[in-house]
Design a protein that fits this description.
Structural class: alpha/beta
Number of helices: 26
Strand content: 15-25%
Largest sheet: 12 strands, mixed
Helix content: 25-40%
Distance between the termini: 24 Å
Shape: elongated
Number of strands: 27
């Protein structure tokens, strides 16, 4: 994950639109069309690059975020394969990339001008240029000469048919891709240290470029005619992150086996993206990254055997220098009867499939970082106004939403013993500590947001930094949490829905310093879990909740649901609930309540004004008994009542349901490992024929699913609550919604480092 305080240097200004080109080789390759090109004149370092419009559009952050782009070298087209095999391969690669919504960008020098992406006509011309003598192999050192001469070695324009091409190698393709803002490059194989290179110093410039250019190169490994071991040692010396995809053995290009252990192993595209972005943004390394993908084509090992035979022949015939590679390639082709070309084609395709996934993963993380940076800057200017200059919530318009959540935003600090150890009180315990975004209201809003409900959140965060004696302000913490909610989770906020506290240093009442400091910090919750990941004890610093704003009556009465946690002041909860359920409302707004804690549940249980507005409440067993007015007044009575089990649950539920919404009310009672109880009060209906009344109360027990590996229980109840509410909003019955909520809660129970599982949106 890229930290939000790291500057991203790939942000692009809006590009001039010069028409749209779709590169689709299924269509006629000979179609004649005038293609308008785009030059990035706003960037001095890349103004000489000629971009294909669809590539520049994909790289532009001004069109809703960058899209994944993969660079391709042009040497493989001009010199690596014969025509028309090379052209057919480019068509196949295009299909692979576009099937994953990735844009391919072939990089080449045309008449002295670097091109980032080619048209169909240009690809056709390039594929024929090698055999016609119009293409020159160009590595990084050759670029200035070719560009200065307009593509001709002697500085004159080419007079023959077709264009003069500079076919880029791995090194030059990397360099130009980086200038263009492309982070992913797919090729066949990379260069390295030649056999005997310790004497001849014949070492590919690919390695030098990898050491200084931050681009991920996906290949089938180092070409096997080279010295793989010495190449890996050189890469280590140059500090180039090097890994093999899903293998512990480094491949030898055609064969997945070399007998050499890989420096590192990566399992998937996300892991590659995380390593690359950590190297680039956190560690500030300038190097690229080399990912070797083992060739799985069945002919690969036979080709590798032919290469080894040819290498022995080179020694016997005393062939040296630049004549070695052409001899080996010709000999291998003859020995394998063309199988080497077929295997080469297949390994490039495999590299393309994996490279596309890597490009998608890198693009996703970089876009996320750009959005967080933009959002953080906007929040700083929008939400940090002095409170005296901020209009009251009732006078500022907010975005409308079908569901309003009013509750706490909390930074959760969680600690639990290491696996296999039990918690020992009054001493230090070996364990695991982590922090995560929390707060009942915030958590429920995240669940609803991830499920597509677009909830509007009303809460409070710390304001400008407090004095040093306060232990630090919570401004950056609160703003970062809001940024993550809005950009990652689909939660809606507005300036009047989020209270930003003023610093205590502006308050002249020195006698109340401690109180003022607490009320200017973003709320913090410290929880100690036992060996079963259940809560043992917690400390809550939440004075700022006294300032959570109340949604306007207009906003409330346009919503289908108002979700309350018990963190705001009681009078605020009462006012919001009454305004939401007012008879003047044009819609029926249902009020959902999470009592949050036993002390707050007791307070709510004595407030008839609030209870009669509540249609749904989500207590655990302790909170249920505390809420049932007059049922238990002390912890001793509560514990005694719990011993009676199901009978107690039903009696307490009936007591509480009588005080709730007079038309219809429901309790969703969480019972830990015993599952969930749904207690409902239905409308009384009489049957004129039998004169029998339907039962007023109904109880349904949902057992907990067995075999769930519990990693973290802090957000399970909030997940159940949010998913249940989303089910009701989508027309599901209470019974169906409980099951949906329980299934969703399992995902959060299995999430070790976050209260709410980020997998919710993909599963529901």
């Amino acid at each position: 994950m890229i930290q939000s305080n790291i500057l991203l240097n790939l942000q692009r200004q809006q590009y001039k639109r010069c028409g749209k080109l779709f590169f689709n080789l299924h269509n006629s390759i000979n179609r004649k069309a005038s293609i308008q090109r785009l030059c990035l004149s706003s960037f001095p370092s890349s103004s000489f690059l000629n971009f294909l419009p669809e590539v520049s559009d994909a790289l532009s952050s001004s069109k809703g975020g960058k899209k994944p782009v993969v660079a391709l070298e042009s040497t493989i087209i001009a010199h690596g394969m014969p025509y028309p095999t090379n052209l057919e391969l480019m068509k196949d690669l295009s299909d692979i990339f576009r099937s994953k919504e990735v844009i391919p960008a072939i990089i080449a020098i045309k008449n002295g001008v670097p091109h980032i992406g080619l048209t169909e006509e240009e690809i056709l011309d390039l594929s024929q240029s090698g055999q016609e003598g119009r293409a020159t192999k160009v590595t990084t050192r050759d670029l200035p000469f070719l560009m200065a001469s307009g593509g001709s070695k002697n500085g004159n324009s080419h007079e023959g048919k077709g264009h003069v091409w500079g076919a880029t190698t791995v090194a030059s393709t990397m360099h130009l891709a980086h200038l263009a803002g492309i982070s992913t490059f797919v090729t066949g194989g990379t260069g390295g240290v030649h056999r005997g290179g310790e004497l001849s110093l014949d070492i590919s410039s690919d390695l030098t470029e990898l050491s200084k250019t931050p681009v991920v190169v996906i290949s089938a490994g180092i070409k096997s005619i080279l010295d793989i071991q010495k190449t890996l040692e050189t890469l280590e010396t140059l500090s180039v992150p090097t890994a093999t995809y899903q293998s512990d053995e480094y491949p030898s290009f055609f064969s997945p086996h070399s007998g050499i252990q890989t420096p590192h192993r990566v399992e998937n595209a996300t892991e590659v993206a995380n390593v690359f972005l950590t190297s680039k943004y956190k560690l500030k390394l300038s190097s690229g990254m080399l990912i070797a993908v083992p060739n799985t084509h069945p002919a690969g090992q036979a080709v590798e055997n032919a290469i080894q035979e040819s290498l022995n022949e080179v020694k016997e015939l005393q062939i040296v220098g630049k004549d070695v590679t052409p001899y080996i390639l010709k000999a291998v082709s003859e020995k394998t009867k063309g199988e080497s070309l077929l295997s080469n084609i297949e390994l490039v395709k495999r590299n393309a499939k994996i490279g596309a996934d890597i490009a998608i993963a890198i693009c996703k993380e970089e876009n996320k970082f750009q959005e967080e940076e933009k959002d953080s800057n906007e929040l700083h200017s929008e939400l940090q106004e002095d409170e005296s200059n901020t209009p009251s919530p009732s006078t500022v318009s907010s975005p409308s939403s079908k569901v309003i959540v009013m509750g706490g935003i909390v930074m959760d600090l969680i600690a639990k013993p290491k696996k296999g150890l039990k918690l020992i009180l009054s001493t230090s315990n070996p364990g695991i500590c982590f922090e995560s975004d929390g707060g009942v209201g915030r958590n429920i809003a995240e669940v609803l947001g991830r499920l597509g409900a677009k909830p509007l959140l009303y809460s409070a965060i710390g304001g400008s930094s407090t004095s040093s004696s306060s232990g630090g302000g919570g401004d950056s913490i609160g703003q970062a949490m809001i940024a993550r909610l809005t950009k990652e989770c689909g939660v809606v906020v507005s300036p009047d829905s989020i209270h930003v506290a003023s610093s205590s240093k502006n308050n002249d009442d020195t006698n109340n310093t401690h109180k003022n400091i607490n009320s200017t910090r973003t709320a913090t919750y410290l929880a100690i879990l036992d060996h079963n990941s259940d809560l043992n004890v917690a400390i809550a610093d939440m004075d700022i909740f006294q300032h959570i704003p109340i949604p306007s009556t207009e906003i409330l009465q346009q919503a289908d649901a108002l979700v309350l946690d018990a963190n705001p002041p009681l009078q605020s909860l009462v006012k919001a609930a009454i305004n939401a359920t007012s008879s003047t409302s044009t819609t029926t707004t249902k009020v959902f309540l999470d009592p949050t804690s036993v002390p707050k549940a007791r307070i709510i249980g004595t407030c008839d004004e609030l209870l009669k507005c509540i249609s749904y409440a989500f207590p655990n067993l302790d909170e249920l008994l505390a809420m049932a007015d007059g049922w238990t007044d002390t912890n001793a009575e509560l514990n005694e009542a719990k011993q009676d089990g199901l009978k107690t649950i039903k009696l307490a539920s009936e007591e509480l349901l009588k005080q709730m919404d007079p038309t219809e009310a429901h309790l969703i009672i969480t019972l830990g490992c015993d599952g969930v109880m749904l207690a409902s009060k239905k409308k009384k209906e009489s049957n004129n024929n039998t004169k029998e009344k339907r039962k007023e109360f109904e109880f349904i027990h949902f057992p907990a699913k067995e075999g769930v590996n519990v990693e973290n229980s802090t957000g399970a109840g909030d997940t159940l609550c949010g998913a249940f509410i989303n089910g009701i909003l989508n027309g599901k019955s209470e019974r169906e919604s409980v099951q949906i909520g329980m299934d969703a809660a399992i995902l959060s129970l299995q999430c070790p480092d976050r209260a709410i599982s980020p997998k919710l949106g993909r599963h529901f």
